Amino acid sequence: xxxxxxxxxxxxxxxxxxxxxxxxxxxxxxxxxxxxxxxxxxxxxxxxxxxxxxxxxxxxxxxxxxxxxxxxxxxxxxxxxxxxxxxxxxxxxxxxxxxxxxxxxxxxxxxxxxxxxxxx
Length: 120
Prior knowledge:
The chain has helices at residues 3-26, 32-55, 59-66, 69-84, 90-99, 102-113. It is an all-alpha fold. The longest helix is centred in the N-terminal third of the chain and has 24 residues, at 3-26.
């Protein structure tokens, strides 16, 4: 897989993730299936980020892309797993997700993915 293909896939995954996060914030009920799907999407983003790191020659680009995104995704993962374990209720999940920077960090990452990469 080449860098451009991974960039495209990562952008698609992040766009879908952003939509799913918006659904969680706005929906009145949240199912375990939704949470498991969101966790799987986050895992795919991490896998693509790791693969992107292996192939990307522009480390400044890569680290700028990853900055903030990984900590936000980790925070969201912890909150989702707590919800799935019954330690967090729907209002708390919604509030935590809404007040986090995850959507903003995803938007920044998507914008970064649209910028050119310097290949050396």
